[in-house]
Design brief:
Elements lengths: L69 H10 L3 H15 L8 E4 L4 H12 L5 E6 L6 H12 L3 E5 L3 H15 L4 H17 L4 E4 L32 E2 L2 E2 H8 L3 H4 L7 H6 L3 E4 H4 L4 H12 L23 H12 L3 H11 L5 H11 L8 H7 L21 H10 L6 E4 L2 E4 L8
Parallel strand pairs: 1-2, 2-3, 4-7
Antiparallel strand pairs: 5-6, 8-9
Helix pairs in contact: 3-11, 13-14
The structure holds zinc ion.
């Protein structure tokens, strides 16, 4: 049963102090900000999502003894990289896998955003590869996201678009919001596993993802920085797997979802990956990744257009703009970890030399955790599991309709007392990058 959010114990959120034991998600209780960028030590690393429940602990980004985050240290490492040598490695990799018999020789997963446009266009035109692009549909397309997707494909790429059952995806997204305050999670499941599964089915043994997760401070693969950690898209024992914070068995039994409808979310078995000798590489390992440069490349080569408005919670217009649920993804992240989209964007732009730390702090102060007003009504309607459309599953919700009051109460249950205080009927972060530098 999914209960109406309970009232929380406000005494834990007093101005003066918090109990270290109340610190949620295994986060470090002392909040710190990177001395070079504006990233917080509360940012969770990209991890596998396959066993994510409300009790899961996060692996936060690592800070070194000088107070510098792993993402900034990765940037430092990048500045010393011999990119000519890396290009040679990429050419050798392509030579090994290139086919000239009319078959595809590599897979490029993507949405038609700047990153996938860049990777697929370069592979095809500069490295003479024959990519098939694979897209896992956004939860709800923005108009400009759909237009960019069309421009990408019409501009000269083959594509397979996988769209999951809309009702199942809606229910899973609502459950992910209520159970783990992570409405983006069902999308992530498909995003990670769709390309490897199709590559396996079509016998295409090479996959290129774009940017390395290490750009955001996630630990690199132990074996090689070039290879994507297979735990992101493979799992061998699905009996322990959870989706939207719920065991697969319960999704079928309690929420009336058919196992076949869960197929798009299921990971690949690693035995298949090994048997088919599929290699999954980061393109960003071989080519220096510069977000603004990638954006200009996409504009020039694919008619890619930035959004007509900035995204909610940030100042940027050209990245991660194709899904209306994205605004809520970043808002929920902000509630749980005290840092949100503007922090992420600004930190990244400091690293690529676009803005100064001082400018970044101003942007974070102005935009981080801004209420995502623009798609609010549509998203709440989308996430309301009404009895007409969901006669069985709706019975599992104490309150099937979602509105702002529900969302706010739910958000409170996910706030950690080490990050938040409640003063004069207002929620405030205890520590911010602009007040406690
Ligand atoms: Zn940093």
């Amino acid at each position: 049963m999914i209960n109406y959010p309970k009232t929380i114990d406000f005494s834990k959120f007093k101005e003066e102090h918090f109990n270290k034991n109340d610190c949620k998600y295994g986060l470090p209780y002392e909040v710190k900000f990177c001395k070079k960028c504006v990233e917080s030590n509360q940012r969770p690393s990209t991890t596998t999502e396959y066993s994510h429940t409300i009790k899961s602990n996060k692996d936060p980004i690592v800070f070194d003894l000088d107070g510098i985050c792993a993402a900034c240290n990765y940037t430092e490492k990048k500045s010393k990289t011999d990119w000519k040598e890396r290009d040679k490695m990429l050419r050798e990799l392509c030579d090994k896998f290139r086919r000239t018999d009319g078959h595809y020789d590599c897979v490029v997963p993507g949405s038609g955003g700047k990153d996938s446009v860049y990777v697929s266009h370069l592979l095809k035109n500069e490295y003479n590869m024959h990519p098939i692009t694979i897209t896992w549909a956004p939860t709800i397309y923005t108009d400009w996201g759909r237009r960019n997707f069309d421009s990408w494909i019409h501009g000269g790429q083959d594509n397979i678009l996988i769209t999951p059952n809309g009702k199942t995806h809606r229910l899973l997204t609502r459950l992910a919001l209520d159970n783990i305050f992570h409405p983006f999670q069902p999308f992530i499941f498909g995003q990670k596993s769709t390309a490897p599964k199709i590559a396996a089915a079509m016998n295409i043994p090479l996959i290129f993802y774009g940017e390395d997760e290490a750009e955001y401070g996630s630990p690199s693969n132990e074996k090689s920085d070039a290879i994507v950690n297979k735990n992101f898209f493979c799992i061998d024992d699905t009996s322990k797997m959870t989706l939207s914070g719920i065991k697969i068995k319960s999704l079928i039994k309690d929420f009336n979802i058919d196992m076949s409808e869960l197929q798009p979310y299921m990971p690949l078995n690693s035995e298949i990956l090994e048997k088919k000798k599929i290699e999954v590489h980061y393109f960003g390992y071989y080519k220096k990744w510069h977000p603004q440069g990638v954006y200009y490349y996409a504009v020039e080569n694919s008619n890619f257009k930035a959004a007509p408005e900035r995204s909610a919670g940030t100042y940027s217009k050209y990245s991660s703009l194709d899904d209306k649920i994205d605004d809520f993804h970043y808002h929920t992240t902000g509630i749980k970890f005290g840092r949100a989209r503007a922090t992420e964007d600004a930190a990244h732009e400091i690293r690529s030399g676009e803005i100064t730390r001082e400018e970044a702090i101003g942007l974070v102060k102005r935009y981080d955790l801004e209420w995502p007003k623009r798609f609010e009504e549509e998203i709440f309607k989308y996430l309301s599991i009404n009895s007409d459309e969901f006669p069985e599953a709706s019975k599992m919700f104490e309150k099937e309709n979602l509105d702002k009051d529900y969302y706010d109460l739910l958000a409170n249950t996910f706030r950690s007392p080490h990050l938040w205080k409640y003063v004069n009927n207002n929620w405030k972060l205890r520590k911010t990058v602009w007040t406690n530098d």
